[in-house]
Amino acid sequence: MRWFTKVRERSESRKVMRTESSWRVTVFGAAAIIGGLLLSSSARAQQTAGTPQLGHEAILKARAMVAGEPVLRSSAPLSLASSRDRRQAIDAYWGTGLSTADKLALFDQFWRYADARYAAFQGVMVDWVALRDQYRREIAAGVSRGRFAGIMNHLSLALRDSHTQAFDVPVNIVSVPQPGVPLLALSAWTYDTAGVCETALDDGSALVYSAIPGHPMGLQAGDRILGYDGRPYRELYRQLLGEEVPLWPLWWGSSPSSFDHSFVMAAAMNWPFFQTMDIAKHSTGKVVHVPTSNMPGIIWYGFCSEQLPVAGVPKPADFYNNEFVSSGIVAGTNFGYIYVWGWLGNAEQDFAQAVTQLTQVQHVDGLIIDFRFNNGGFIDAPLLGIAELASHPTATIGYDERKPGGGHFSMQSLYPPSQFLLDFAGDGSRVKASYSGPIAVLVGPGAVSAGDLGAFWTTFLQRARTFGKSTSAAFTIPTQDSLGTSLNLNPDWYTRVGEANAWAVSANFQYLTHREFPVDQLVWLTSEDVAAGRDTVVEAALSWLRKQR
């Protein structure tokens, strides 16, 4: 983990501008970052052989690594003003790349692998063969490295699965959106490049819930980014998707609402494409139009988790060192509160210990579990702590995989429901503890993978109620050793496919990927609350808990 220690030391405080010009993307070798991408997950897999791992730990740590380095700002950046300009920049910025024969081989291998093994064709409209024919003709005629990355990004994006990804690491992960760099940013969790933390609202605007002091665009908590150049941002990001601009992602949501959320929440990061940012100012109620030329370049800022501070409850201490759990009692109440940001490291035990401490030792009157940001991890890690809250065994889900030689919808059992019984720990042992108090579970699109699973399993608890927005709905299991599969296309590429799909025992065996998470009370951050330092979702949960006494 030595490479990560460097990241942590250099990015402990990210509320500063970084516009140094002493480093070039090309110096940051793809082999080095891929080594970092694989290091933590492979080491963990050796510790728990055979346990499926979900989540996005590798790409999150890669973003942190990039955020810890200065980035060159060109004195004469390529224009990104029009569709034609963007296509020319995509072709020019990263050069030619692999030979046409190698590009075709890489494309064919990914397409065939997904065609045979992708397990979530249910619930998504895609003509997979037509995409192959369309893109293959274009690649055969000769495309640049940037255009090929865009093709592969949008091929995987068409399957609408948070675990199905095809990224050229130097293009999609190491390069950073800025003037002249034609990358469409999405998923603004952890680190934002525009000096703010932002979230998506239902009207298609991006709400700023935190910002650097004296922001060059005048952005403050409570402001909403409506769009650019007089056009709504939702319209603009969809246009850029239609142009198949290469992506700068963490993940995209698998359900329709979380997919949209993952793009809208990154509105501020995509300022390099536009001339004027349209901002609804909370302080005045007016809309102002601020030139994007005010931006000095990249402004790294974080940690962004779509969660405002809660009095009396610390947030997890060190996300990048697998410290994912923290807990406390909300100030002025007897309600316990638990953050869980991931399911790797000691998260399984830490979560269970927090549940025990609050419910069995401190005897809280109610409990809030905050899963709004949870990047996933090991598939069974949430079960132990949730079992301490459950009162009786309940069948929840099973997993199916593709049937060899069958069509896109031909499935067979991979893991039966007996492996995911509520009230049992991940090792199959019965947990005798239970909790009879009310439980508020906070959810949102930042809960992905095993984060989806933890949130879903709490819905089976007798007195639980969910608050927030749909989770990512990424109930697939990606390519990995525990499935006996691998997809190593090229040293510069990070690729995987969702190879198993969860189905719900209680919902007529419907597959869960792409389906909206069943939130009991839809509520999200508001301008008024974040401007006052209040978390709207937490306030809604507390209001409900007070009524349960």
What gross morphology would you assign? Answer: globular
CA radius of gyration: 23 Å
For the termini, the CA-CA separation is: 47 Å
CATH architecture designation of the largest domain: Alpha-Beta Complex
Secondary structure tally, helices:
15
Low-pLDDT stretches: 1-31, 38-49
Task: Assign a percent range to the helix content.
Answer: 25-40%
CATH homology-level superfamily of the largest domain? 2-enoyl-CoA Hydratase, Chain A, domain 1
Oligomer classification: single chain
Strand content: 15-25%
Characterize the main sheet: 6 strands, antiparallel
CATH topology of the largest domain: 2-enoyl-CoA Hydratase, Chain A, domain 1
**The CATH top-level class label of the largest domain:** Alpha Beta
- The assigned structural class equals alpha/beta
State the domain count.
Answer: 2
Number of strands: 26
- Rounded mean pLDDT is 90
In words, what does this structure look like?
There is one protein chain. By secondary structure, the chain is an alpha/beta fold. Helices cover 30% and strands 19% of the residues. The chain has 15 helices and 26 strands. Strands 4, 5, 6, 7, 9 and 10 form a six-stranded antiparallel beta sheet that branches. A hairpin with a 2-residue loop joins β6 and β7 (231-232). α1 (2-10) crosses α3 and α2 (30-47) packs across α3 (57-67). It starts with a helix and ends with a helix.
